[in-house]
Design a protein that fits this description.
The protein is α+β, with helices and mostly antiparallel strands. It is 32% helix and 35% strand. The structure holds coenzyme A (COA).
Length: 202
């Protein structure tokens, strides 16, 4: 397992000490609105989550790995970045991201997902990274646009979700498209990945 390090953040596997903060932001109905869990999210739910994450690899086919997004200066858990390896296609992954409300609006998701995408494309040789989001979730659509994802589809009332039919938007980004944006990043207009720190396996 690796720890991804950016200017402000470290992305690393969850630890027991993160679970109180995790349960708090997952219990926020605004944060959970378009996400697959229900509120309130208890400490027992959080402990179960940690147990299920044990041994899951980065972009492992068929599994979601959730990395805690931690402030390097303060140790605060801002949220998590999620990575799922596709089981039916090679070199394909899906990503997601969640921030506590107090950590939103500061470019933290942009910085964290930039590091995840660098790791997926450069270190794991992914060909294509996708995201599937609720049509009403404007914040995540702005985030994906900012990162250079292409909006590829809008699936009208395709998903029975939290008691109603919901419309899904699909987004994708190819390795060569991300590489082309790398040149822009070195010009200082986007947050850069500082490094990847090896971490002892759990
Ligand atoms: C999706 C989500 C992570 C986006 O969070 P976010 O705070 O909008 O995204 P960022 O952290 O990248 O911050 C971007 C915002 O901060 C501003 N910002 C400030 N400093 C910035 C910087 N250095 N770099 C980039 N943006 C910056 C941007 O202008 C932008 O605001 P805008 O969208 O009003 O223009 C957040 O809305 C969330 O957690 N939602 C609940 C969970 C969810 O639904 N997740 C999606 C499921 S996949």
């Amino acid at each position: 397992m690796t720890e991804l390090v950016t200017a402000r953040l470290a992305l690393r596997p969850f630890e027991a000490g993160d679970l109180a903060a995790f349960a708090v932001y997952r219990s926020d109905p605004e944060v959970a609105r378009y996400q697959g869990w229900d509120t309130p999210f208890s400490m027992a739910d959080a402990a179960r989550f940690l147990e299920e994450q044990r041994g899951v690899g980065f972009a492992q086919p068929g599994r979601w790995l959730q990395l805690a997004i931690v402030d390097r200066a303060t140790g605060l858990v801002h949220g998590d970045g999620a990575v799922h390896g596709a089981a039916d296609q090679p070199a394909t992954a899906e990503v997601g991201v969640t921030l506590s409300r107090s950590s939103q609006g500061r470019g933290i998701a942009t910085e964290a997902l930039t590091a995840v995408l660098d790791e997926l494309f450069a270190a794991h040789q992914m060909h294509r990274v996708v995201a599937r989001v609720d049509d009403r979730n404007v914040a995540v659509q702005r985030l994906l646009d900012r990162l250079g994802f292409r909006r590829e589809g809008r699936l009208v009332e395709a998903d029975w979700f939290k008691g109603e039919w919901t419309t899904l938007c699909t987004y994708a980004l190819l390795d060569r498209e991300w590489a082309a944006r790398g040149a822009q990043r070195t010009s200082g207009t986007r947050p850069a990945l500082v490094g990847v720190k090896p971490q002892a396996s759990k």
